């Protein structure tokens, strides 16, 4: 199995939370007894990763001692290799953020991309990522969405069960995406993301990861979904408040 590397993108300023009165970076906010950082990061099968990169703003390291925060929250998992990559300013979306790792991650490594404001539970993800025959060219976390809610990313599967198309903010199926994106070859992501940025291929002004799969599917790559057992979105103050109340009961 080629080495698996995780990238956790946390380089935003969390403006919705700041406007709602929260101080500090979004991922340091507590809900249900843990920070959003912990809820998100410990959703991942960390034991599989050769290294985890956390991509954040340089100002957060200066103001909030981010490296110390990460080290303390990782707990026993800190023994695994991790690195904090600092950016001088927010990017134009997650795909552009993770593209900053291009000189740090081998193109032949597996690459798992995740955010900092969603948590999930999947009984199958670790096994799928570990099995080349199961993961194919990459694994995308998903959940079944009941009803219409186009705020998510989506994937449509074909007759063979492989992903036939992805879309951002366009409900092409009931397979909504968790925000976990995996590429069996990191080069597939880096090359496709670079092309998208160069061509200005944004959705609502941002460079998202989900649409990148379409270019790779057209080139013959095959991707599979990993349906999760549970998903909790924590991307807005309202979602965090609702989760905190649920955990307090």
- In angstroms, what is the radius of gyration? 17 Å
Residue ranges: pLDDT <50 for 5 or more in a row? none
Shape type: globular
Strand order in the sheet with the most strands: 5-4-1-6-11-8-12
Tell me the total number of β-strands.
13
The CATH topology is: Spore Coat Polysaccharide Biosynthesis Protein SpsA, Chain A
**Number of domains in the coordinates?**
1
| Head-to-tail CA distance between termini | 43 Å
What kind of sheet is the major sheet?
Answer: 7 strands, mixed
Portion of residues in helices? 25-40%
Which CATH architecture is right?
Answer: Alpha-Beta Complex
Give the CATH superfamily: Spore Coat Polysaccharide Biosynthesis Protein SpsA, Chain A
Number of H/I helices: 10
Structural class by sheet pairing and helices:
alpha/beta
What percentage of the residues does DSSP assign to strands (E)?
Answer: 25-35%
CATH class: Alpha Beta
Average pLDDT rating: 95
Give me the strand/helix succession. Answer: EHEEHEHHEHEEHHEEEEHHEEH
Fold and architecture overview:
The chain is built from 10 helices and 13 strands. By secondary structure, it is α/β, with parallel strands linked by helices. The chain has one domain: Spore Coat Polysaccharide Biosynthesis Protein SpsA, Chain A, CATH 3.90.550. The strands form 4 sheets. A 7-stranded mixed β-sheet has the order 5-4-1-6-11-8-12. The chain has a two-stranded antiparallel sheet with strand order 2-3. The chain has a two-stranded antiparallel sheet with strand order 7-13. The N and C termini lie far apart (43 Å). The relative contact order is 0.18.
């Amino acid at each position: 199995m080629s080495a698996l590397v995780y990238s956790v993108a946390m380089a935003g300023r969390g403006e919705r939370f700041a406007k709602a009165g929260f101080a500090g970076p979004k991922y340091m906010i507590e809900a249900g007894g843990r920070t959003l950082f912990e809820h998100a990061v410990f959703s991942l099968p960390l034991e599989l990763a050769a290294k985890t990169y956390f991509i954040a703003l340089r100002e957060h390291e200066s103001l909030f001692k981010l490296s110390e925060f990460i080290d303390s929250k990782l707990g026993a998992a800190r023994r695994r290799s991790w690195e904090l990559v600092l950016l001088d300013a927010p990017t134009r979306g997650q795909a552009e953020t993770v593209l900053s790792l291009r000189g740090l991650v081998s193109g032949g490594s597996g690459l798992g991309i995740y955010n900092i404001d969603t948590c999930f539970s999947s009984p199958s993800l670790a096994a799928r990522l570990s099995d080349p025959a199961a993961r194919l060219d990459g694994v995308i976390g998903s959940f079944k969405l009941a009803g219409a809610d186009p705020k998510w990313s989506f994937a449509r599967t074909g007759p063979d069960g492989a992903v036939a198309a992805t879309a951002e903010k366009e409900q092409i199926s009931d397979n909504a995406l968790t925000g976990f994106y995996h590429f069996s070859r990191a080069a597939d992501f880096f090359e496709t993301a670079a092309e998208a940025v160069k061509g200005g291929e944004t959705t609502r002004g941002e460079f998202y990861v989900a649409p990148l799969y379409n270019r790779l599917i057209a080139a013959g790559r095959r991707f599979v979904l990993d349906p999760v057992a549970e998903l909790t979105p924590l991307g807005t103050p309202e979602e965090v408040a609702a989760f905190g109340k649920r955990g307090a009961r």
